[in-house]
Each structure stands twice: as C-alpha cells, then as structure tokens.
Fold this sequence. Notes:
Blueprint: E1 2-5, H1 13-20, E2 30-33, H2 39-49, E3 53-56, H3 70-90, E4 95-101, H4 125-144, E5 147-153, E6 156-157, H5 166-176, E7 180-183, E8 189-190, E9 193-194, H6 195-206, E10 212-217, E11 223-224, H7 225-236, E12 242-245, H8 260-266, H9 274-291
Parallel strand pairs: 1-2, 3-4, 4-5, 5-10, 6-9, 7-12
Antiparallel strand pairs: 8-11
Helix pairs in contact: 2-3, 3-4, 5-7, 5-9, 7-9
Amino acid sequence: xxxxxxxxxxxxxxxxxxxxxxxxxxxxxxxxxxxxxxxxxxxxxxxxxxxxxxxxxxxxxxxxxxxxxxxxxxxxxxxxxxxxxxxxxxxxxxxxxxxxxxxxxxxxxxxxxxxxxxxxxxxxxxxxxxxxxxxxxxxxxxxxxxxxxxxxxxxxxxxxxxxxxxxxxxxxxxxxxxxxxxxxxxxxxxxxxxxxxxxxxxxxxxxxxxxxxxxxxxxxxxxxxxxxxxxxxxxxxxxxxxxxxxxxxxxxxxxxxxxxxxxxxxxxxxxxxxxxxxxxxxxxxxxxxxxxxxxxxxx
Length: 299
C-alpha cells in the first residue's frame, strides 16, 4: 500500500504522524510526503509503485472552515482530484474510489438522502468542491473508461477520529468540564457511521469495477444531537453544561443515509450502531489520554 499525504496543519500534524507511525514498520507500506496539488509528485508516485487501484481520501476538510476559504478548497478538492484522475487514466488504473460527503445534499427535502437527488445546492465550499470532483470523475469515466466509484460518507467517527469533529469534542468537553455548544437547542440529527463500517465499504468498492457509480455509505439511523450528548454523558458518568446557539448557514438540520444501493452493490452491512460506536470511541479516548497519561489539550 502506498500513501501520499502532505500532513497539513488543519489540525495538529503530530496527531497524523502518530496515527501513521505503526504502519511504517510494515514492509508492504510506503509513505510519500507530498501534495496532490503537485501533478509531478502525483505522477511520480503512480509510476514508481505501479499503482492499479486508488482510494482518493485526500481533501481539505471541514464544512464550516470552508465558508471563508473557498480558494483553498478549490485548489485541493478540485484541482487535486483532477491531478489524481489524470494520473489514474495515464497509468491504466483499474478502479478509482473517490471519497465524497453527505454534505453535497445540502438542505434537501428528500429524506432519507438518495443518490438520485440532484445535490446541486451545497451550503458551503467544502461540499461544493466535493460535488465538483464527483462530476469531473464522471467525465473521466466517460472519456477514458475509468472505473470510478464515488462514496458519499456520512459523519464518520470512531477511535483515532479527527479532533475537530463532534464525537471527540463532546467527549473531551465532558471529561474536562467545559460547556458544549449544541446548535438549535440540539434539534439536529446526524447519521453517524462507525469507522470500521466505513473502511469495509471502501475496501469493497476497491474490489468491484462498477463503471461509474455514486453510492451513499452511511449507517442509516440518524440520532438527535441531544441524545448523542446524553449517550456520551452516560458513558463517562458526568453531566455537562449545554450552550444553545443558532446553527451556522453551512449546517443542514439532518443527515440521513439511504444505504440500499451500498447494500446491493457493495454488500454493505453496517455492524456498529451509534451507541456501540461511542462506547468504542470513549474506550479509545480513555486509553489514549487518561490511562496512558496522554494530553488531549494540544488537540
């Protein structure tokens, strides 16, 4: 396996390096430090390692951060994606899996979210650029017969999760006695998808040449944010002060995955519900930052 990563500073790069460190012991793993915005770096990687399958997971992440940083998101999520697609077609890649997001659906009124929704009203630059990459990927399939499967992820979480996402932020705040902001009084629902289930979906897509497909990859069981916090409080054994604020314009009231297509084409069958997944996440947090004496404050 070959990984190309620029270890950007959207959050502490030391966390990313710690995550990848165990893999460096594997003789079958290669790490290239580089940027997908650089076509030469991308092409050299494909040529040096005879790449035949691609899981394009690189992105400038963060819906809210993207509201003020559109040029950066275009550079990484659109131009970077094109560099990878160009390399894939030039090097005869068999399957290209393109990571996208449930955020492309915006504030759609079609619930649950289905892949035949136009998804043409994104609420911020992040989903807009991910949707653009989906459409560009179709052109590469059409023109060069590249097998492309776009997976729209739904609120991926679990051990090792990003520190800017709600599961980590809620657990960390409860542990440290800090208030938690819940938008719209917690009257928002999110379809959380455990990391292991997501990985199984990605691997399945890498094994199946499907032509061109867009597939939702989510659990299909949205949870109110008030319930989400209650579950975390029960796991940790502490209550927390909640702060109510209006939701920013980038945030839809609900994410809700219709995963029937993933079940049919990828044999996708999510095994971990949100309560179980949060228990696993809390156990990881406890091992990493409490039992082992780690410091989540730097996050």
